[in-house]
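**Reference record**
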Amino acid sequence: EDAAAGVWTPGYCYGRAWWGKGYATEALRAVTDYWFTQVQGGWLGCCHDAGNPASGRVMEHAGFVFDHEGTDYRFDGTPMACRYYLLTRARWQALQG
């Protein structure tokens, strides 16, 4: 349903001093809550650099599930191997209660 209007992907990037404190998971959960309650979106996708498995754990803690591997591009156009995750409205609702 949402795919017809494009793919929406939340992202995060913050300083090393705040790593491992749960801030990214908390923020990603807030974004997904907003997406499903206010925007009424059907699903969200996320991806992370395959060399950074900690980002994958953040996504999993926020309810996302691994979907596939692929390639994305850094800001300078350099390709990077990525892991893609998905969170559907149905899964998000199941996690709420």
Remarks:
- The first strand starts at residue 43 and ends at 49.
- The chain has a mean pLDDT of 90.
